[in-house]
Amino acid sequence: MHMQLDENAGASSEAATVAWSTVAAFASAVDADLDKWLAARYRVGLTEFRALTFLRDVSAKELRVSELAQRLGLNQSSATRLVSRLEAKGFAYRDVCEDDGRGVYAVLGEGGEGLLREVREPFEERVRDVLGDVSAHFPHLSAGALDGALEDVRSFLEG
């Protein structure tokens, strides 16, 4: 019986790996599509766009660069370079924490707010279009396999 449990655990682990790999490949393909679309139309990358939305969505319109890095899944150095790019494009600026002078904040600027207003609806339409017709946008990905993988991931999350 112990051997059968180990075999089932191995099969379950492999199923989780396959399911997650399928979902990750899909997410990467969607992100690449959105990044290319944003760059072609608005001269901004997806990570820059996400950073601006994170700044917009907090009440003070600012986040410590370290917190922004965490939200974006970047290391501190990459986030610092990202904020520099946003600053060079006039979308955000840096501010130093008045309390200790060491904390550096990224602050949403007027240019960033204007870009977000301009991009919001077309971007939402693009996301709906891409998610609504997976086969047309990503013929190399099977919509059926993706559906199954999403169900598998959901079942693993629910325990």
Automatic annotation (TrEMBL):
Pfam families: MarR_2 (PF12802)
PROSITE patterns: HTH_MARR_2
InterPro entries for this protein: HTH_MarR-typ (IPR000835), MarR/SlyA-like (IPR039422), WH-like_DNA-bd_sf (IPR036388), WH_DNA-bd_sf (IPR036390)
Name of the protein in its database record: Transcriptional regulator, MarR-family
Lineage: Bacteria, Bacillati, Actinomycetota, Actinomycetes, Mycobacteriales
GO molecular function annotations of the record: DNA-binding transcription factor activity
Record-level GO BP terms: response to stress
SMART domains: HTH_MARR
PANTHER family hit by this protein: MARR FAMILY REGULATORY PROTEIN, TRANSCRIPTIONAL REGULATOR, MARR FAMILY
Origin: domain of life: Bacteria
Ranges where the HTH marR-type domain occurs: 1-155
